[in-house]
Protein 1
Amino acid sequence: MDWTLFFSALLSSTLLPGGSEALLIYKLSEGGDPILLLIIATSGNVLGSLITYGIGRLGNEAMHRHVIGQWLRMSDDQIIRAEHWFSRYGQLSLLFAWLPIIGDPLCLVAGLLRSPLIWFLLLVTIGKAARYGALVWLSLA
């Protein structure tokens, strides 16, 4: 298990800005198993999103917008934008949880709005695996 990649992917989907993509590409260039690295990066990134979802699910909206939003480095504008995406596109917006700026707030909003966990996990995993899969494919091409 490549714990460095796992924790890089996990942290980049919660508190810290990205870095897992560059590390994944580096590990691939060093001859790492593409499928294993894809699974590790996706697992860490999904777990990070699940933590953000859980934070949203456990609290109330007012606290999250001001206290938790600041702790997760999300502006009120980012959270409002994510709420707009979620209300406009519903659960399917979670396919885009990998996007910079909007992805983490989408996960928080999904928790705040009590999105069903199974749909959250399924859609977030599909989107994040597709993103990492594209990076793996492009790196090996």
Protein 2
Amino acid sequence: MQAEVGAIVDGKVTGLTEFGAFVEIGEGKTGMVHISEVAPVFVNNIRDHLAINQEVKVKILNIGEDGKISLSIKKAMEPSQNTQKPKQQGSNNRRSSSQANVWQGTKTAPSSENQSFEDMMARFKQVSDEKITDLKRSSESKRSGGYSRRGGKQ
């Protein structure tokens, strides 16, 4: 089997480093999968995703003049596997789905497929201005303690 750019081949993980994995793709040829090409999600520790002697499918991205072979596991995945979004971690999980939709503009805005870029930007600006105004009102009322800045009672 001749290794050529764009081909998807079976391989076997032969080594792991902090920056990637070495994969044997046959005929004594070994390529490297950079850590950014291991999975469609952020990979902090490659050992969480791969193990030595693990069988993997890889796509050949590049074959350098020096014979170095660049490989990708995530580009060799089927499109349905590659397009799944990872679950958000951290404070974003505390937001309700309605709050997330407001920021994405999907709660009250019409479908973006039917809008021009200028219409979407105008809608974004309007929503942002409303949020800033509400935030200012809220923080002003908390700060003032019931009295306006002019000194009189509200």
Protein 3
Amino acid sequence: MRYRVRTRDGGELDYASFGQVEQAWLMGLIDPDDELLEEGKTRWRKAGSIPLLVSARRSSEQVWRGTWFLWTLIGIFGATVGLTLLSKKELEFKIAGVVVAFGVASLMAHISVKAWERRKPH
């Protein structure tokens, strides 16, 4: 089913499916104040009033259900611990610092990949 989107400045765009509308919404091309008209209907609806779009935005902006901030703090804390250990003179601390730094780098790489996978179009 086709959809037409009317922006606040009066421009109109056509989309072949709701999936395309959702992708445009997730990319920020459609604002909550823009209006949406479903093929065969006569009533325009604000995009921000469509529950499927609102929930798509909410879930897409979060990495692992909103815990991105927590993972960032864990990464900063781990990096601080690793650098502190690396700054010590004893070899055991330096080895532990390398292990911690490698673990933090691996964790951050994993989180980045998960975030990228969630942002890719389906």
Protein 4
Amino acid sequence: MNQPIHKDLANGRWSTFSLSEQMGNIGSEVSRASKQENKNPELFQKATDRALELFDLTLSDKRWRGRLKEIGRAREVFCDAILGGKEYGTHLQDLQKYFDYFGIAARLNV
């Protein structure tokens, strides 16, 4: 099994975050990946790896049982985007607005 990238988050800290905070943090990695997509393959890969790990931590958070379909679909669409958008025609920039709303909600403590 691979070592977690976000060790402190994987060891339970992630479950102290609200859904908005979790999704907002995923959005930060999506943004980083988007900025590096055609510039720096190594930084792009690291950002996508971090985003996928955060998605998986969120999907394993039992508090979001009623939201798993939405979170899982967001992960699926993110994967489509990083693999070229062949399935859904998705681009990382397209996902940014979706995640930005979570970041705003987290900042407002909504």
